[in-house]
Design goal:
heterodimer; A: mainly alpha; MetI-like fold; 11 helices; 72% helix; elongated; B: mainly alpha; 76% helix; 0% strand; globular
């Protein structure tokens, strides 16, 4: 353990580092590309979508299989699936980013306070974090969402506010180790207030950890939102969401496979993009490969 | 050992009390009273007042809280508003199917995870390594409910090999024991597969990282120098070493799997806790929702306690007397 066997270990680490760099870059590029594409589609949805996603078709237009006129077919009400798919990207991306933002903001605040504050505060906050972590999150989300009228804003707030625990633990651990570093000790020694030390000196050093945790959280937030929409607890008509589209296609799965299949593929591509981006960023920014577990 | 265990048990107990408070607070501090949220629209306003009295909703919050905590600890979880029978019975019926599904899926997920990790670590940097990693990442990114639907479409609708949902066939009660078991197993395949496929990569990545670390250590070098084959080296020397963190991970995976089971039970019509919860939520049947949420939280707390104990048993370097828990 203490005496490394020079040649073989050296070769081993060199090999490992070399291997880690290439796929990290590849993952980063692929993930960023996928996510950029979906983001562009979401931003330009009204321009890109062939027609209005809410326009009802004639009776003859219902459940048409994919054809040149409707590349991804039409749904039970004769609406164009491609148009709905393009518009649905907005809900997923918005939910993903906003939830991740809320989760990371709360998690960072809690983690920073616990890591740099007095011992009793640390104890208190970490007990709270562990208690929240012990809930299977989906039950908590279902419980809260079900008690009020379903809406997209509420769903996003709840997903965000129940996802901060993993980030809090990561940030706390990182803060505890940063606290012992010389530049932080120096800042304290200069007589800066604890607040100033945290915001101006500790927080900037935490950025890599925070960015990686955030990018990995976007994908899981998108999946949670899609499941709630699938249950009818998320975005409500006329807002289009991929989860609700999958649910709408469920009763006619056998006759019209395209209804549920394409929104699922779109979700998968988006989440793969997020996860690749997160992996790539982690390989680049955080060589310790500390995985941000889903809170 | 005992001081540590006592402290750990005490903190688990505190945790459960905290969780109970959270469940109660979430349900009762939400706007409106449970009766107004549309549980029983048909009830006349006079009867509604009576019902409110019978459920104790007119008492002060603190009294309601104490009564609920005391009842929960005694195993009395109240009466379902919709089904008009004890919540304990409903939960007891649903717990079996959920445990069956979760444990089978957990075992399969573990087998897949270790297999994938070993393949990736053995062929490090090869096409196979990237292929397994890539396929796993895609599976990890799929929405579970959608994967379930697609598997149903393929194996149940198109090929007709397996039933599309439920836990028993329509004629299961009439079948002899052996055929009934086979029927149950056939119904179990798709939900288990969906759950395991969607989750194994998370564990595989941790195991793979642990394997990589183990393979870089001196005892592996020493074993290799003694002429032990690569295959034996991987399976008999590195893997046991790498499985240690898996003990903790297995406990942490429990919330994940229980949460995943909710999704899968809804898609496959599996009569478990998740489906009960989702149905109760739709009907605003809050005693059932509170019970299921609490039960899952208790299961998770117990799981992490077991994982801690297992970790301490498995790794002699971690003293059983010190109070530091990972």
């Amino acid at each position: 353990m203490s005496q490394p066997a020079a040649p073989l270990t050296m070769a081993g680490t060199a090999d490992r580092a070399g291997r880690a760099r290439t796929p990290g870059a590849l993952a980063l590029r692929t993930g960023a590309g996928l996510l950029a594409t979906v983001t562009l589609v979401a931003l330009a949805a009204p321009l890109l979508a062939p027609g209005d996603p809410a326009v009802l078709g004639e009776a003859a237009d219902r459940l048409l299989s994919p054809s040149p006129a409707h590349p991804l077919g039409t749904d039970v009400l004769g609406r164009d699936v491609l148009a709905r798919l393009v518009h649905g990207s907005r809900v997923s991306l918005l939910a993903g980013w906003l939830c991740a933002l809320v989760a990371v903001a709360v998690g960072t605040a809690v983690g920073l306070a616990a890591g740099s504050g007095p011992r009793w505060l640390d104890r208190l906050l970490m007990t709270l974090t562990d208690a929240c972590l012990a809930f299977p999150r989906i039950f908590l989300v279902l419980l809260i969402v079900s008690l009020t009228k379903p809406s997209l804003a509420l769903t996003m707030a709840v997903i965000g506010l129940t996802g901060w625990m993993g980030v809090a633990r990561l940030v706390r651990a990182e803060t505890l180790s940063l606290r012992e570093r010389e530049f932080v000790a120096a800042a304290r020694g200069l007589g800066l207030s604890p607040w100033r030390v945290n915001v101006r000196h500790v927080l900037p050093a935490l950025w890599p950890t925070i960015i990686v945790a955030a990018s990995l959280r976007v994908g899981s937030a998108i999946l949670t939102e899609s499941f709630l929409s699938f249950l009818g607890l998320g975005a409500q008509e006329p807002t289009v969401s991929w989860g609700a589209m999958i649910q709408a296609g469920r009763p006619v799965l056998l006759e019209a496979w395209w209804l549920s299949t394409f929104p699922g593929l779109a979700l998968a591509l988006t989440v793969v993009g997020c996860n690749l981006l997160g992996d790539g960023l982690r390989a680049r920014l955080d060589p310790r490969q500390e995985a941000g577990r889903d809170g | 050992m005992f001081p540590w265990l006592a402290r750990r048990l005490l903190s688990s107990l505190l945790m459960i009390v905290l969780l109970m408070t959270m469940v109660f607070a979430v349900v009762r501090l939400a706007p409106g009273d449970p009766l107004e949220a549309g549980v029983v629209e048909t009830v006349e306003s006079r009867d509604r007042e009576l019902l409110r009295q019978r459920l104790g909703l007119d008492e002060p919050l603190a009294d309601q809280y104490l009564r609920w905590v005391a009842g929960s600890l005694r195993g009395d979880w109240g009466t379902s508003l919709r089904q008009q029978r004890p919540v304990v019975d409903i939960v007891r019926e649903a717990a079996g199917p959920t445990l069956l599904l979760s444990l089978t899926a957990w075992l399969l997920h573990l087998v897949l995870a270790v297999a994938a990790a070993v393949v990736m670590a053995a062929r490090r940097g090869s096409t196979l390594d990237h292929l397994v990693g890539g396929v796993g990442l895609v599976l990890l990114s799929l929405p579970g409910f959608w994967l379930g639907l697609m598997l149903t479409l393929l194996f149940a609708r198109q090929l007709g090999w397996l039933p599309a949902g439920g836990m028993h066939g329509a004629d299961a009660a009439l079948l002899p024991a052996g055929a009934r078991l086979l029927d149950l197993l056939r119904h179990l395949v798709l939900p288990t597969l969906t759950l395991a496929l969607g989750s194994f990569m998370a564990t595989a990545r941790y195991t793979r990282a642990a394997l990589d670390e183990a393979l870089g250590q001196d005892f592996i070098l020493a074993a290799r120098a003694r002429g032990i084959g690569e295959r034996r080296l991987l399976w008999r020397h590195a893997l046991p070493h790498a499985l240690l963190p898996l003990v903790t991970l297995a406990g942490l995976q429990l919330p994940q799997l229980l949460g995943g089971a909710v999704v899968i039970e809804v898609v496959f019509g599996w009569p478990g806790l998740g489906r009960v919860a989702v149905e109760a939520i739709g009907a605003r049947d809050y005693p059932v929702v509170m019970a299921v949420t609490l039960l899952s939280a208790v299961l998770v707390t117990a799981g992490s306690l077991l994982a801690d104990l297992g970790y301490r048993r498995a790794d002699p370097r971690v003293g059983l007397s010190d109070g530091v828990t990972p």
